[in-house]
Design brief:
single chain; globular
């Protein structure tokens, strides 16, 4: 069995739900760039940020990001997935050298969150003619 990525082993769904619920109710106060234009299927940035964080991070990137952002000294007591979650609010550049493709870009939430994590991005949108 090949090595699984952190997103395949454990996804912090309860933590993301708490943040996403607050984000969903704070739309009139918190207006990230991807909410500036109308899009019928608006997605929450907190959800995409977590997906990208857990999909892009491996052990080497985790250690590098922890060194860059000044990780907690007690990280040795935490699992890899818990250590990745600790990077959620930090400016962790775990996506350097990776490319994120969003072939159905929509409002751009996934693109912005991947950029915030340091990844290169490719986004394709659909414009209806007629």
């Amino acid at each position: 069995m090949p090595d699984q990525k952190p997103i395949e082993r454990k996804f912090p769904i309860s933590e993301v739900n708490r943040i996403a619920e607050r984000e969903a109710h704070a739309k009139r106060y918190y207006r990230p760039i991807y909410t500036m234009h109308k899009w019928w299927a608006r997605r929450l940035g907190s959800v995409f940020r977590t997906i990208a964080l857990y999909a892009l991070t491996d052990e080497a990137r985790l250690e590098q990001a922890e060194a860059e952002v000044g990780a907690d000294l007690l990280t040795f007591e935490k699992s890899e997935e818990e250590r990745i979650w600790d990077l959620y609010l930090k400016d962790a550049q775990v996506g350097k050298g990776k490319v994120v493709l969003d072939p159905m870009m929509g409002g751009g939430t996934s693109i912005v969150e991947a950029l915030r994590l340091g990844a290169d991005v490719i986004g394709c949108g659909h414009k209806r003619m007629g």
